[in-house]
Amino acid sequence: QVQLVESGGGVVQPGGSLRLSCAASGFTFSSYGMHWVRQAPGKGLEWVAFIRYDGSNKYYADSVKGRFTISRDNSKNTLYLQMNSLRAEDTAVYYCAKDLKVQDYVPRYMDVWGKGTTVTVSS
Amino acid sequence: QSALTQPASVSGSPGQSITISCTGTSSDVGGYNYVSWYQQHPGKAPKLMIYDVSKRPSGVSNRFSGSKSGNTASLTISGLQAEDEADYYCSSYTSSSTGVFGGGTKLTVL
């Protein structure tokens, strides 16, 4: 079955770095764009980043632009989120999500979600 | 990238219909037919309920429907059931080639 499994979360000090991974299975990973979405404790969803199916284009929320980098390795069916210069406000559950449409070129819809990995930024 | 505006909460009795609004701008909701809705139960990942303003993914009940007028999109749930109690989020593509979510609406089934 279609599955996404995030990993790499943890506790990090402000200003630190963390790399999240998302292992995909059950679908042709290289044919779909992928998203990262986060949810701070007790808060709503926040779209973070999107990468096209072939990695050719990447899009970011203003809140993370210049600090976070989304990437993918289609040979390993894995999505990544490199997070640098972390702040307290980056504390959240981070979800990876598959885009609904094959080879979609912009971020639109997320039809399969992982269970999330928790990132806590605290001294 | 300001969040879309949703009511914080709505409620209804079993069997009734409710509507959740989602207001944006001409740079997001009003400018594109790329509005979606997600359902999230406590402690769970979100689930896509509506995309392209009014289309339902396979497996989603036809009690869920979506529409849009100008800068405001709406989600209607008819024949309310206890299992519909959850948080609901709207989302839209934006002119900055990004995504944006609404603040979320807590649906209570009385």
Features of the shown structure:
heterodimer; A: 123 residues; mainly beta; seven-stranded mixed sheet; four-stranded antiparallel sheet; globular; B: 110 residues; six-stranded mixed sheet; three-stranded antiparallel sheet
What would your notes on this structure say?
Chain A is built from no helices and eleven strands. Chain A has 123 residues and is mainly beta. In chain A, strands 2, 4, 5, 6, 9, 10 and 11 form a seven-stranded mixed sheet that branches. In chain A, β5 and β6 (58-60) form a beta hairpin. With 110 residues, chain B is mostly beta strands. Helix content of chain B is 0%, strand content 44%. Chain B is built from no helices and nine strands. Chain B has strands at residues 9-12, 18-23, 35-40, 47-50, 64-69, 72-77, 86-93, 99-101, 105-109. In chain B, the strands form two sheets. In chain B, strands 1, 3, 4, 7, 8 and 9 form a six-stranded mixed sheet that branches. In chain B, a hairpin with a 6-residue loop joins β3 and β4. Chain B is globular, with a radius of gyration of 13 Å. The mean pLDDT of chain B is 97. At the A-B interface, β5 and β10 of A face β3, β7 and β8 of B.
